[in-house]
Each structure stands twice: as C-alpha cells, then as structure tokens.
Design brief:
Helix content: 40-55%
Strand order of the largest sheet: 3-2-4-1-5-6-7-8
Bound molecules: guanosine-5'-diphosphate, magnesium ion
Strand content: 5-15%
Order of helices and strands: HHHHHEHEHEHEHEHEHEEH
Number of helices: 12
Distance between the termini: 15 Å
Number of domains: 2
Oligomer: single chain
Largest sheet: 8 strands, mixed
CATH class of the largest domain: Alpha Beta
C-alpha cells in the first residue's frame, strides 16, 4: 500500500454540500470550519486554515480555491515542523534520510537507529522492516534485540532476522539490555556492518522511565560513537486509544527523539491523526507502517500525504 493511496479526506462531499447551499460569507466559513473539525483535522490547524481563507479568499470563492488554501496550510504546518527540526541541533531527518539509508560515499559513517515506544506499538516489526529496506538499499545491517524483559522479546526479532537474512545480536531472557546494546555496538564498530538497528523493550510506561532507559542506552552508544544514535525513533500505533495516544504524544517531549514512525495506518488511515502527531510533538513523522509484512513501510512525504489526504 502506497502512502498516496492511504488517506481519505472524509469532509470532501460535505464541503461540496456546504458550497452548493449558497450561504453568506461568515456562515460559509463557519460551516467549513465545522466540516474540517468533523473530518478529524486538529482544531488549531482548522483555525489556521479558516483564518488564512478569510484573509486570502474574496467572495465569491469556489470550493477548489478553498481546497487550495487547505492544502497549502496543511503543507505549511508539516513543513514548519520539519524545518524547525532541520535548523535545530538534531540530525536532518527527512532531507538526509535517503542519504542515510542508501549506499553512498559516506559509507564509513556507521549508522545507529534506536527504536523506542510503548508495548505493542510495533517497534520490533518496524525494526525488521527498516533493516530490510536498508539491506535492499545496499547497507550491511545488523539487528540488535535488546528487549530481554519478555521471554519472546528477543526471539521475535531473531525470527525476523532469519527470514530476512539479517544477523541479529540478542541476549537471554532477563539479561541486561545494556550489555546486548554494547555487544551490538561492538559488532558494528569492529566488523564490516554499516548500520545497526536497535530494538528496545516496551515496558516503558512513563516519560521518566523512557528517559532513564533512553539515557542509559544512549550512553552506551556514545561510548562507541560520541555523537550518539543517527536517529532515535518513537514508534506510535495510530490505532491506539485516546489515553495511550496522549501518552505517546507526551513522549515527544523527550529531546533525544529525532523522528516518529506511525504504525498500523492500514487499519485506520486517519490523516487527522498524522497531523495531530506532527503538530503536537513537533517531531517529524519519518516512516509509516502499513501492514505486518517486511515491505509494509513507507517513507513519509509531505507532498504525497497532502495529495492523498486532500485530493483523492
Ligand atoms: N496491521 C499492522 N500491524 C502491525 C504494524 N506494525 C506492527 N504490527 C503488528 O502489531 C503487533 C505488535 O508489534 P510488535 O512489533 O511486536 O510491537 P512492539 O511490542 O512495540 O515490539 C504485531 O502483531 C505486529 O505484526 C503495521 O504497520 N500494520
Ligand atoms: Mg518488541
């Protein structure tokens, strides 16, 4: 499933109805605002769109003119977040991503991808998917299974590794996850691997725990590569209930995160949820998960997202 076929703008028909009702300007904008909120676009973004529309659209205006404003504003919101990250201290997530995951001249720079997030969000599956994507792009990838808290935690990634032909460094059930990360980093640095993808345990339920765990793992990584992980990716299940979703958004406050992977978009492809995550965390969505197979991962593209969300 491609990103551009994933979303549907549920307000499209209703917006058409609003326009055919020939309302007065003020009332027209009120009705449009209502439709955007009903279609799951976050309130703050809806307000921005309506405000922009009021400034730039002269009465009478058409549905298509309004949709152009809508499209531009959504693009601005997303690009705003991506730019902010780019100019900040962190890595350059989106623009550099292709560079990072494809074979290039800077191959001597070893890459470290760290996955965090609550239990069941899709960390292990996404780690396997990304490893597969990078392997196909010519990288020599190593998987690191540091989830030693659950009996099946490590073996799940081992099975993926076997299926995809990617080596996995693991640890026994109950062993120290830090030592598994240490072993993974050691192999990365001393063998001819170009990247390691580290899966972590999902027992983390509070922000404090997440930070402590991240700090510990990051410290071990920095012993080998002083600049730390290339990307620390927060995995969020798009089908989560409101509470879990809010909790995941809170994790976005952790300054070490450089990107988000939004999983299970094949179940509920809600464009509004994507917008909300990007807006509330201020962290760019780098990948989306669209199924349970190794190939069910798409790189996030603002253009394709907006096209899919607004135009189909
Ligand atoms: N439909 C669908 N299922 C997914 C996706 N990503 C992960 N899953 C499933 O979600 C469940 C939990 O995934 P897992 O990787 O074990 O989560 P973890 O606990 O964070 O490591 C598994 O059954 C996965 O197959 C996705 O993008 N789409
Ligand atoms: Mg897991």
């Amino acid at each position: 499933m491609k990103l551009r076929n994933l979303f549907r703008f549920s307000a499209k028909e209703n917006i058409e109805v609003v326009f055919s009702s020939k309302k007065e300007r003020e009332e027209l904008f009120d009705d449009l605002e209502e439709q955007l909120i009903l279609s799951d676009i976050p309130v703050t973004i809806t307000e921005r769109i309506i405000q922009k529309g009021k400034i730039s659209l002269k009465t009478p205006f058409t549905k298509d003119e309004f949709l152009t404003v809508l499209r531009n504003e959504i693009t601005n919101v997303i690009e705003g977040v991506y730019k902010e990250v780019e100019t900040g201290d962190s890595m350059l997530p989106l623009s550099n991503l292709k560079l990072k995951i494809s074979p290039d001249k800077k191959r001597d720079k070893k890459k470290v991808f760290l996955f965090v997030g609550v239990n069941g969000s899709g960390k292990t599956t996404t780690a396997a998917k990304l490893a597969y994507k990078m392997k196909k792009a010519g990288e020599k990838v190593l998987l690191c299974a540091s989830d030693t808290f659950r009996a099946a935690g490590s073996s799940q990634l081992m099975m993926w590794g076997e299926k995809l032909g990617i080596p996995v460094v693991g640890g026994d059930f109950g062993s120290d996850p830090g030592s598994v990360v240490f072993n993974g980093m050691n192999s990365l640095m001393n063998k001819d691997y170009t990247a390691v993808i580290i899966d972590t345990a999902g027992r983390v339920q509070t922000k404090e725990n997440l930070m402590r765990e991240l700090e510990k793992i990051t410290k071990i990584i920095k012993k080998f590569i002083p600049s730390g992980p290339s990307e620390t990716l927060l995995v969020i299940d798009a089908t989560m209930g409101q509470n879990t979703f809010d909790q995941a958004i809170k994790f976005g406050e952790f300054s070490g995160l450089t990107g988000i992977v939004l999983t299970k978009l094949d179940g509920t492809a809600k464009g509004g949820a994507v917008l909300r995550i990007i807006e509330e965390t201020g962290i760019p969505v780098l990948f989306v998960g669209t199924g349970e197979k190794e190939s069910d991962i798409e790189e996030f593209s603002t253009e394709e997202f907006v096209r899919s969300f607004v135009e189909d």
